[in-house]
Design brief:
The structure is a single chain. This protein is of the alpha/beta class. Among the domains are: about 160 residues, 3-Layer(aba) Sandwich (Ribosomal Protein L4, Chain: A); about 30 residues, no CATH class. The chain is about 40% helix and about 5% strand. It contains 13 helices and six strands. The strands form two sheets. Strands 1-6-4-5 form a four-stranded parallel β-sheet. The radius of gyration is 45 Å and the shape is elongated. The termini are far apart.
Length: about 290
């Protein structure tokens, strides 16, 4: 990027509010699919369920980092934290001299309802980030534009989602004019849809022989030449007739001998005249 510290550079882009809300709800829905969470690289083998919701009482007196680590180990989420710690490395390049010396992957995201001691307990664990449920950040839910962040919910925060984003039957209480987006298809199993009796009954039978397009050389293939130039048949016929030897008439030997003598005599006269002409051209001028 050229001149990244100039004040006139266009740093921000305006995005429609509905579009941002749609992105946040999509990121929340993706965080509830284990396949996407696995695909993003999180270690959730020992996690009992996705999405992971922990009771509010477990976070009540959580004011120490060691207690937060104990809680993560008890629910099987510390493997993802350990994986984050193992990825920590020194940055390559000049960034190591600009207050960003180390790089590491992101771990779980803890979403809470109300501020409390848990914000101090989790803030010092590598890779763990916190977010308040009413101020969810899209860059935290889908870092780098990749869906499937491993999210740990408090029970109070998880219960508040319906009032914030609404449901398919009730509108949102906090976001005016926002309705929860619906999926275009209720069944995402494409193979099951295609092989269903309703669809297979109206499909055409499978083609046994595929028809391939023929690309011929018009210089060698007369059939392909006719497709490009229908008049080529008449041209080819005229060419054949023009080059045909045809029938020869019987030649009289005596007449041929007389004709040959006449041609020879004419050639001698032409040669004699040509010699006299050149001799006159090369003669010295008097």
């Amino acid at each position: 990027m050229f001149a990244p510290t100039k004040v006139w550079r266009r740093w921000h882009r305006r995005v429609n509010v509905q579009q941002k809300r749609f992105a946040v709800t999509s990121a929340l829905a993706a965080s509830a699919l284990p396949a996407l969470v696995f695909a993003r690289g999180h270690a959730i083998d020992k996690v009992p369920e996705i999405p992971l919701v922990i009771s509010q009482s477990a976070f009540a007196n959580l004011d120490k980092t060691k207690n937060a680590v104990t809680l993560l180990k008890s629910v099987g989420a510390y493997d993802d934290v350990q994986k984050t710690i193992d990825t920590r490395k020194i940055r390559a390049g000049k960034g190591k001299r600009r207050n960003r010396r180390y790089q590491q992957h992101l771990g779980p995201l803890v979403v809470y309802d109300e501020h409390g001691p848990l914000t101090r307990a989790f803030r010092n664990i590598p890779g763990v980030e916190l977010a308040q449920v009413s101020r969810l950040n899209l860059l935290r839910l889908a870092p780098g534009g990749h869906l499937g962040r491993f999210v740990i919910w408090t029970s109070g925060a998880f219960a508040k989602l319906d009032s914030i984003f609404g449901t398919w039957t009730e509108a949102s209480e906090q976001k005016k004019g926002f309705t929860l987006p619906r999926a275009k298809t209720f069944n995402s199993d494409l193979a099951r849809l295609i092989n269903s009796d309703e669809i297979q009954s109206v499909l055409r039978p499978k083609k046994t022989q595929a028809k391939r397009a023929f690309r011929g050389n018009p210089l060698r293939n007369i059939g392909f030449l006719v497709k490009l130039n229908p008049y080529a048949v008449n041209q080819r016929r005229a060419e054949i007739l023009r080059s045909a030897p045809g029938k020869r008439k019987a030649v009289d030997p005596a007449a041929a001998k007389v004709k040959a003598k006449a041609v020879s005599k004419k050639a001698k006269i032409v040669k004699k005249n040509r010699a006299a002409f050149y001799k006159q051209l090369t003669a010295p001028v008097k």
